Amino acid sequence: MYWSSWKSFYEAFDEFQEATYQRFPSRTSTSIKSRNKQIAAAQKEVKKKQSKPKSRKVRAHRQSTGNTLLPESWEKYSRTFVCTHGIPYESRGEGLRQHDAVRFVACTARVNARVCCRPSGVGFHIVVNATGTHSHSLTEHQWYNYAENRRVLDPELHRDVAVMSKAGAKPRGILGLSSSQNRLRTILRDVHNMIQDAKKCFNGGRSDAERAVSVLDEFCEMNTGNVAEFVIDKETNVVQVITFQSARQKRLFAAFPEVVLVDSTHNSNANRYKLFSFAVHNIFGRVGKCFQALTKNVLNICIIFCVVYFLRVNSCNMHGCEFLDFREKLWLHSGSIIGGLLALQSEYLDVAIVNSFLRL
Fold it and tell me: Where is each ZSWIM1/3 RNaseH-like domain found (predicted)?
């Protein structure tokens, strides 16, 4: 069986793989230019040897083979397709965790396709040669276990997944939509991959500061009452402090300005930022955060910035406000809590630490 172009061969080969549940990724290839260089070098070697009269008969026989240059319009001279279970696995990690999903079972099945001159001597076509046998099962279940066969290529579906993920939809909910809109057997891992691709499109190639600006811009656009501010280190271009307060948190503080809790959480997120927050609580012990800030470190200047920004944004509701903390004893406080209290006292001289709380 012959094919007149690489396009027709690829189409037929894809149908063959899907019908027989065989997966043959392209392993190696040779370009037409490289093959023509080899042919030209061989022709040059033959002409050089023909100048010697002793072995002219043998050279005349060799001259009749491999002396046809291939048209460069084909681009590729040959391609070798190796079974996906015959490609050796090379670990790229440096940790101790083992990679469980390894396909390599030393399968020897492979397919070679190359451009040859037609028997008539006019034109060229593609000839295929298959070697080796499979050392594993060829089933429908195994076929759809390959992630390449579950890949979603519909751009509209990718757009829908990106919009749903950005709006806060859960991956399992997105999985139900993607399964109903395409015939592929999409699993939860594929949805996570699509979400990750969407995040790369939104945030790819941007620095930490640029991503922070885009996220805070979206936060402020969600509601006219939302406010946010951040500080960037000019040398490293890394965000040091992020402060943000939603319109709901503003209303909460305006309704209950009498008592405000001060709390800090360390290393509770993947980026190791410190969470510094102000909160209000009622007589039932329920706590509602009315201001939050993320700091890269607990330096005094970062805490001062958080406190000053909170006072500036909520200056109209600060009269008579008491700042307390979640713990009864001051010596139980974390370093950033104490730093925040001292920073507030240094910024406003009429603030005094009384037992374990502050009074304005």
Answer: 217-312
